[in-house]
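Because discrete structure vocabularies remain unfamiliar, it helps to consider an illustrative case, giving the amino acid sequence and backbone structure tokens:
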Amino acid sequence: MSGALAERVFVEKLGRVGLRDVTVVERRSWGIDDCARYPLFDSELLRLMRRLVPPAAHDRVATVVTFTARKP
């Protein structure tokens, strides 16, 4: 599952669908170069991101959070 959710909201949603023992395994920054690997980010959008996002933040435009959970 992916999307622009606050981590707390995401954990709550996992609980609502019945998953338990939700644990964060990893958090890492995701940059514009990472975005370039996905077709959703076409060359025009990547150019726009590189222009609008300050260069010091190009390597951290998002945070990827990996979870584990248990299905009872």
About this structure: The beta strands are 20-30, 62-70.
